[in-house]
Amino acid sequence: MLRRALFLVLSVWPAALPTAALASDAKPKAPDTAFSAKLRPDILGLSTDATADSARVLFEARFKGHADTQTDIQQQKLGDTGASYIAALNFNLPAGAKQTGELLTGSFSSPASGNRAYFIARNLTFAPDQQPAKADMIKEIMGKYGVPTIVGDQHLYYIYRSGSVMSSGTKYKEATALEALDKPLDPRAAVKLNGETVRGSCVAVIKRAQSKARTLSAMFDEAKGANCDGVLSVQLIPGTAPQRVGIAQFTLLDTKLVVSATAIDDQAIAADQNERKTLPKASAPKL
Known about the structure:
The chain is α+β, with helices and mostly antiparallel strands. It is about 30% helix and about 25% strand.
């Protein structure tokens, strides 16, 4: 797998960043995605059909007026083109005694595959006097995303395959989801989700995605081996009281897009390298 060097640009409101252009000027190819137009989960309106540019507009609007926002724009080079593109966005509003902290993160493929989002996360750290009830959070979550695939270990997991949310056999209601939230995940349900293919656990894949490098090359192997096309995870960590939520973490991973965009990007790099090899090489004139 190709290694792509990263470099960081840190500022509060960075200037516009250049877009990568291949020597061949090939048109972007749309990568495959886990989600259909009718079933496309989003986090604050941001889904995996978003580009880095559209996500940046949303991020900046979200944190407008907060001077203490910490902004991290990560750029990545596409092959040997020398140009760079936005590969990741991280906007962080620190939590305070009276302020709920918020972190928004997005990871994006190269312009060859549309500069599309494949990983989106939102973390909320509630101020002590602003911690919502777990029951209210679950009601909001299920109202937005529907019935989860499996609940437990402080998480509600929505696992997508073939354009729909998979079922583990338990038809959760708000009350049953609340009851299951802080219990261990049902191992029988986990086995059922993996089925006869014995492929990688989608629960494990999204957990590791939250803590490891989120470049396409770093995520490719696990995404390819996952027994799903995409995962939405919502973790509710208890607050000052057990029935309250201190931290809410929303994570969306499109494993199908990771695999597809990797193939498109690698093909674009190979085509660009071949074109550069065929360019005429002029010799210096005699002086």
